[in-house]
Amino acid sequence: MSRNSVVFWIGAALFLAAVVLMTQVIGNQYPFFAGYVILQFIVLAVAWSILGGYAGYVNFGTSAFFGVGVYTAVFLVKAIGAPLAVQIAAAATVGALLGFAVGLLTLRMQGIFFSIATIAVTIVIETSVTNWRFVGGAAGIQIQRPPVMPPFDNYVQMLFFVQALLVVLAVATARYIQISWIGRGLQALKDDELAAECTGVPTLRLKVLACVISGALMCAAGAPAAMYLQYADPSSAFNLNYSVTVLAMSLIGGTAHWMGPVVGAILLGVTQQLLAVTISSEVNVLVLGIMLVLFVVAAPEGLLGLIGRLVRYRAGGKA
Amino acid sequence: MDLLLNAVVLGVLLGCFYAAVSLGLSVSFGLLDVPHVAHPAFLILASYGVFFLNDSYDIDPLLGGLLITPLLFLLGLAAYRLYYETFEKRGSDAGVRGIAFLFGIAFIIEVLIILQFGVDQRSVSASYIGKAWRIGEMRIPVRLLVAFAVASALTILLALYLSRTFMGRAIRAVAQDQEALRLMGANPVRIKQWAFGIATAVLGIAGALLIIVAPVDPTLDRAYIGRTFCVVVMAGLGSMTGTLIAAIILGVAESIVLSTVGASWAPAISFAMLLGVLAIRPQGLLGRRS
How much is the ipTM here? Predict the structure, then answer.
């Protein structure tokens, strides 16, 4: 294990320890309610950037994967009363399969056509779920939370911890991909797909692999949302807002490094949470739109790219 | 059988209406390669403009659409200038960040409409709305007939403009080979900006038709992302005749599903067809690219 990895895993352990400590010390429920949403978006943004950032394939189907995660959990709860861990594991499996299918279907298309195809996949799945009576159809479905497990004394706290675990899993996966041959292959096909293919990079296989991993993580992130809200309905579970928010977070942070989406998700997520408390939810979407436009225009490489350029500029100035 | 015939007739009328709302995208995405996901948002904006004129000054929706056309043209010029300066001028990666940028614009428009007009559905009033024509067993709403007539006229006019006028031919030339045009001494950016202005100006009438055919709400643009892109991709990028044919196919398909399977499946039709077209025949029915 390299020194970098040691630092990373110590950081991850400290993060989880802090989360557990929070659940034991803080009595007020609001931080967990808000924090859960931010953690969920970190997972989604990190998962998105595995395909969108490293490989440069802009996936607008985040809401499809998120919604499928939600509805996998809903189905399992309704059918067999499955516990949370089973819901998440099943959602990850379904997500991987869906990622495989979507990848095979759409990854031969390039650029904008891939993006449009992923929007199409989202709506087709949403419509199918809307017409699926067993999970509530268009009207949605209420879900009862089971009793909470110790050491947590509140279900939302437990979900907060679970989502924190998913954050560590997602970031570790993204980080592994970035430093391994998979990441280098994806980087190569992002720069020039034809050249990569010619030099022996198995481009389609790599893209499908990235789509599978990304899809599994997104679905896993969506699964606990059913228990979090105690309610699910197709038009909010598959809302296009998820896709665009996650895209914005990754672009705001920067997509070249796994840290980018984390930073972006925290920045945009916290802003939205703060605003949602004080102002209406339309303003949330407005903030999303404005930040997206601003960052895409002013900081094309995201915050990380901006900082990197600043650092290089300083160093250059001294030398 | 009567039911099916009725569905097909309504579908053709609906299809011509879809052609009208997709024409602008056929120019901006089909000919200029701008991934204009904010096109439906501009369309809804135009509808609300028509609604405002109708509601406050009692102006006929079609006249209202004509009145806001020059404004939309200017908006289109400005929008393309902004898009060009930020993306196309800097080169490569325009597609990815361009689509993100346009989504941002679409969301901003959506929220501004909500803040101004609220989230409720809005509709316009005119003498021809609410009446129906009876032909035997069939019942055809006059509002659809109006939309059909105006949409057909609009499509033909735009097709003629692009094939007969000097500027129209220049627009098609810039889509084919920008470099060659530059070598001829023409400025491709000016031509593209003009084309984008036209593409946005067409939305004045299209927006009027949209609110004549059915009430609009601020988030309706999301459904029309599927319909418009489906039509334009199926048509083959940049073909006006193709746009009309593809739109009629979509209209008929939606109408048949609506009357046989049920309304709840309708939103998926355009997107499923779009997926099918992308997977099987990405160059469209009458594509300009092989």
Answer: 0.81
